[in-house]
């Protein structure tokens, strides 16, 4: 005999007539957690969180095993699997899953036109409910993830069933049920609309109009909002039955009282209005859920004059035939004269609108085939269609994508809904709410409505509630306005594969993603699914990035919803991230290997042969840098995602792979954040070598910033942790720090020891680095040439460029300007082909010095100004100071003394702030010369 499980009400386990429901509360919670995801592995950590909440006892894991053992005595199918437990039961034996299956099946029947079958099937599905979902189950996590969506689906299914009953002429039978529904959910507009229609159908027109007035009073009083289109349309239909039909229909809803902004799209609509006698115009307003598409259409319609009338229809999941029936009645067609078939209704509709100059608003269209039969073909007609999709296949239509508000518009809308005075009193909190709502008009309207209903709340209080990502979607709900519900409609309408991709993307916190990363999380090619999600308005195509990849982004609230669905349907994000991590790490590692040919630091790269080196040209290196630049935001966010998921090995490796790119591009904030996360992960997993590599990277950052003592300390801490082959490389970094500190003997001792170690180990890249460092310290031309030769053998144009610029500086100091120019032009050409902006700026400073030595101050000025712009763009203060020195010298040669004084004063300030004594001395000497020429005393 089969065991039946119930969670739609109090937890229940029944076998025939026997009640096997567990008694202890924690046993019931554990069983509910397993029943809600039958056949899926639930980790021990997940179950502990759902049974005990955020503060489980220290003994939670062994106690959980005891609970599982007890449950097995009454419930078969509980299996222990790696990492957790699994309940092996048919989902149809659990009433919640049976309910969801029946709702889906009967929606298909409804869409196929089998109205009576669908109504009876939904009635059977709703009969499975015995009370509130998970009644008596003490788990906030389960209630939020499952009870709330189930209750929402229950209400939606009830409203759909009632709508079908009304369509079948059963309005009188459902009025009592609807009265109870609006009493328990007074702000649910759809239920009020159905009550109005049912009462009208039952011949109780005065009660129907009274129900509308009561609904409007509640909505205005509680939310400060006028009724929406569905409720207004129900009211209009009842009125139409007691008033003579007007010759000119005027169905567009009243304008939105607190409409904000959108001047650009409104101007586009106004400019698109066809003149009388011209071809009809069809406009599509599309964008993600909650961007206010309907509000824009209604507001635009309110300002347009169409003598032939205005039609309005809410499409949603309705068939074109059903919508045409309403439109035909609006145009004066008697109910008995409406044809039965879609083709006949379309022909009649076109005949009735012919000769009229109409405005038709079609709200919430799902696809092109739903819209085509509803487009008026008469001259001078305008159709405004709103949709989450751009409806690209709709012939002769023009589209406009609505995005989110900026901060100023968001605050303005919040003020219009919540009150100008309250928002002016807390401008910073208002701006925080705007950011946390992501500029989404629906979210802002809900936030404003919550404030309007709670005059005791401060804006700071609401902002604090919205800060917690885990509860943000719960907070953005007021009556039947809910961001989660709006997103859920789009999610449920997706095919299985697109739903899977969307929720798995919820494992990522990055604001945008390329198709390769989506493929990694999906486990199969994702290009078409990404396009489908963009068509559905859940993602947005951003176009091609710098590396030629199509990128997609999404609203932050959509990301939170996707993360919710992932946790509810598949569990924590760690499994998705672990599966995708291999591809992400491999791509980052290969990009690093191109940036730093033959560098052994990862333990996975090796020196190239001469043939391989010849194959590695600057185009491939530049391609790698472009890919890293395009993926920087994604990869930085992924390091944090991996760390939060406890994937420590992947975290520190990805952090390590990225740091040379951050150094090359001057991305110091990202550099610091990623290294700190990587260090934390390496230490947590006890990986000494990983910790050493990241300490070394952090030391590189400090050296770049001029924090030399901190850099030296980090390198000394890294030395005892590093593996043997990495010790010379770490010591080489220490030598660079000592050289910057002015401790040349110690620096050169490091370089000499490193050169010997690299040579003995056959590490050619290390040998090139050591030769360059030693040659730079000793100003030894032969050592620099030796370094240059090795870099060329390795096929490393970045190394070659760096040494070429070193040699140019050396030749310049030795009064050999023509040789200096030749070397500087070679180095500058290489870094420009590679696209390395900061090294290019450093090369320009050198070219400025060469130009000064050759008596070309105009050329020197141009090079120094170009370098200064780049350094300031990247917030590189030391580089900017060097560029200012070169600029000041050029200005002095041009006899522009006042400008030279300004430039050298800026350089003095920067060097002083950086603690660069050598640079400060050089700048002060030039400042004295500038002051002398100006006739001032220093």
Automatic annotation (TrEMBL):
> Any idea what this protein is called?
BTAD domain-containing putative transcriptional regulator
Q: Where is the OmpR/PhoB-type domain?
A: 1-89
Annotated DNA-binding residue span(s): 1-89
**Keyword annotations:** DNA-binding, TPR repeat, Transcription, Transcription regulation
Q: Which Gene3D superfamilies match?
A: Helical domain of apoptotic protease-activating factors (1.10.8.430), Tetratricopeptide repeat domain (1.25.40.10), Winged helix-like DNA-binding domain superfamily/Winged helix DNA-binding domain (1.10.10.10)
Which organism does this sequence originate in?
A: Streptosporangium vulgare
Query: InterPro entries recorded for this chain?
Result: AfsR-DnrI-RedD_regulator (IPR051677), Apaf_helical (IPR042197), BTAD (IPR005158), OmpR/PhoB-type_DNA-bd (IPR001867), P-loop_NTPase (IPR027417), Sig_transdc_resp-reg_C-effctor (IPR016032), TPR-like_helical_dom_sf (IPR011990), TPR_rpt (IPR019734)
Q: Which PROSITE patterns match?
A: OMPR_PHOB (PS51755), TPR (PS50005)
